[in-house]
Amino acid sequence: MSKNIIVGQSGGPTAVINASLAGIFAEARDMEADKIYGMVNGVEGLLKGTIADLSEYIKTTEDIKILCQTPSSFLGSCRFKLPNIEKGNEIFEKIFEKLNELEIEAFFYIGGNDSMDTIKKLANYAKIIGSSIKFIGAPKTIDNDLAVTDHTPGFGSAAKYIATMTKEIICDSAAYDLKSVTILEIMGRNAGWLTGASALARGEDCEGPDLIYLPEIPFDMDSFTEKVKNLFEVKNTLVIAISEGIAFKDGTNVCEMCFKNENLDAFGHKSLTGAAQYLAAELSSNLGCKARSIEFSTLQRAAAHIASDTDINEAFMSGAHAVRAAFDGETGKMVILERAAGKEYKCVTKTYDIDKIANEVKTVPLSWINDEGTNVTEEFINYARPLICGENDIIYKNGLPVHLKLKNKVVQPRD
Amino acid sequence: MSKNIIVGQSGGPTAVINASLAGIFAEARDMEADKIYGMVNGVEGLLKGTIADLSEYIKTTEDIKILCQTPSSFLGSCRFKLPNIEKGNEIFEKIFEKLNELEIEAFFYIGGNDSMDTIKKLANYAKIIGSSIKFIGAPKTIDNDLAVTDHTPGFGSAAKYIATMTKEIICDSAAYDLKSVTILEIMGRNAGWLTGASALARGEDCEGPDLIYLPEIPFDMDSFTEKVKNLFEVKNTLVIAISEGIAFKDGTNVCEMCFKNENLDAFGHKSLTGAAQYLAAELSSNLGCKARSIEFSTLQRAAAHIASDTDINEAFMSGAHAVRAAFDGETGKMVILERAAGKEYKCVTKTYDIDKIANEVKTVPLSWINDEGTNVTEEFINYARPLICGENDIIYKNGLPVHLKLKNKVVQPRD
Q1: What confidence score (pLDDT) does residue A40 get?
Q2: Does the beta-carbon distance from A288 to B266 stay under 8 Å?
Q3: In A, residues 164-183, which contact B (CB 8 Å cutoff)?
Q4: Which class for B393: exposed (0-12), middle (13-18), buried (19 or more C-beta within 10 A)?
Q5: Which end of chain A is more exposed for a tag (fewer CB within 10 A), N or C?
Q6: How far is it, in rounded angstroms, from Cα A43 to Cα A118?
Q7: CB-hemisphere CA count at 13 Å for A371?
Q8: Which parts of chain B have pLDDT scores under 70?
């Protein structure tokens, strides 16, 4: 029997989602897998038959290294939610038909909550039909909101980018001796992990943001304006970090106060950008100060050039562990990171029952937010600091980081 | 007689404006200057008496290196335009009084057009009153719009950041197999150098932006929409780079079509942000596609973590040359970069009469823009490519680049 595997990437990309792919590829090759297939654009691609043979792209150790420094999903992504097993058997049948055609022994999916839901359903369906194919998930999300795992690959690199840019912007904003406020809008709809990471900028050479607002705490406009007013009495240039998802007590998102959302969205999706722009405009007219907003936007998940080396290594380890688990006979599991006790930071990979992970959201513990709701505590810093440490030794060409590119999307399955 | 010098930084900061400061400091020390003063917040600080003794901050070779990787103006900046000599003699008198008090022999100003205007006026005034103080300018501006010099320190690093992020965003935007357009808004009011730099992303592993719009060419909405429509027939995910300063034929800035400007500006200054947001909204409603905008914002001038090593070295060289010129008796000059002929890129520093530089604006030659006004030519690429090459070996601590910080702003002049 052939020992073929297939891997897909799903949901929003991260700076290190390809390091997990590299880990899966490298471990599968070491464990003498025959074919290592990639689904192009996730399960959607599998259904359409757009499959890539990864060994055509990854031939050398340098290719692995370049894959690890390539942002976004090398294989392309999708946002495809499987129906419940009772209802959509046709889709499940088609997926298993494709997998059997390719003689797949193990199926890996690198993604967030929705992707883990896919793994869960496919593993359950396999049990029902008596298929021996193994299904293992490898976690990724910059949002860090997956349950059970200490943190998710992707978070550390986004946090490193955010902390670095926050530090550089604080430097920049202090250049003029004028009253000014800069509001940084950071990703995170329901969880404030990334916004909290802006506090990592704080150190001997930087004061860090003056105020930090996470979506875990209701936002109050009056108290916000008051705090800014008070801060202006002791300093001239303020930098404030807010999560895109902050909402008033009544549940209205702050960004809904902004024109932009009405303008931009052609799909009826509620876009969550605009909160910083709105708050800057309010401060400017209420306090008469110079106020500007900066959206960190998708740069947060794409800035592989400043990825955290710890994050890259853990993403790679997670992928490799997924392969070992599948080849050991496990299925319906997600790889998690477990932080070892002790002073020195260390994480090990394990697997965990996917039923207990999928569709749960992990927010920042309220005890890690200060009483005023304007900062994170030392516990948060101690948790997040090691995750941004270490720099990747990027390969540059012509002044720019080199990326690996998927050129030919479709390959024929073997006869 | 003492051999004291004073240096200031002025205008918008860049990622390497402190490398010029480091060059001035290092060369002045090597040439055995006595005191090396810094004006805190430029000429404004000099007038107020906020002066720093730089040797208190820069003690080791590592300090020099850290100064070179610190974004923004280490000494703080100002936007202070000197009056014409005829009219404002009081201010000139006060400046020279301060300089004489500090026994200054040479005055250096690192900045753009306005700063060179300051050097020009002070040098002329010195001539009138028979002062022997030398005045030399060191160029900086991310906009690259200073006349005579081949390019300006600061441009290469901003261009490297823009090209890197453009490349990473193109990767990111291709993850989903959906019709989408991403519009990147890049700095540059009248000159498209930075927007053109997005084309540097193009290479074996990246197609580069699909369309590039510089402020040198009038923007036409219908032709723009048509081009996007046509591109969608051959590909799904488009990335478009525009300059914040693009304007319609009648001179109206595209950004003026956007709500944002009315909201944000408390000072009556016309803010130039919002063009990308407006165009994304238009495309979204006219073509029914997913459209988003990303403003590169001040990150462009602050992203020292990915500064070009060529740029850092040239900024340093410019500072050092300024000191040698002043000590050789030159005054009323700006340091320029001159590109040597030949295949291998090489720039040398020279000085140039400031009268012929100040207040001139250098835009992208029209022959370096394609006929349709939607891209830059190979000449542009050949010009800009060497300026982004080389990576700085950044010193990190706790996962973040280390910066040098000015702690105590005011020092007493010596007795």
Answers
A1: 96
A2: yes
A3: 164-165, 167-169, 171-177
A4: exposed
A5: C
A6: 9
A7: 0
A8: 1, 259-271, 358, 408-415
pLDDT at A410 over 80: no
Task: For residue B281, list chain A residues with Cβ-Cβ distance below 8 A.
Answer: 263-264
Asked whether the beta carbons of residue B76 and residue A169 sit closer than 8 angstroms, the reply is no
Please indicate whether, in this complex, the C-beta atoms of A398 and B389 are within 8 angstroms of each other.
yes
Q: Are A263 and B286 in contact (CB under 8 A)?
A: no
* Domains along the sequence of chain A with CATH: 4-153+304-359+390-401 (3.40.50.450), 155-300 (3.40.50.460)
Q: Are A28 and A128 in contact (CB under 8 A)?
A: no
Q: Which of B397, B414, B413 is nearest to B62 (CA)?
A: B397
Beta bridge partner(s), residue A211: A240
* A11-66 tens-digit pLDDT: 999 999 999 999 999 999 999 999 999 999 999 999 999 999 999 999 999 999 99
User: How many Å apart are CA B187 and CA B249, to the nearest integer?
Assistant: 20
User: What is the pLDDT confidence band of residue A263, given thresholds at 50, 70 and 90?
Assistant: very low
What pTM, to 2 d.p., does this model score?
Answer: 0.95
Q: What is the ipTM score, two decimals? A: 0.94
Sorted by sequence, the CB contacts under 8 Å of residue A145 that are 6+ apart come out as: A112, A113, A152, A190, A191, A193, A361, A362, A363
Coil/strand/helix, residue B292: strand
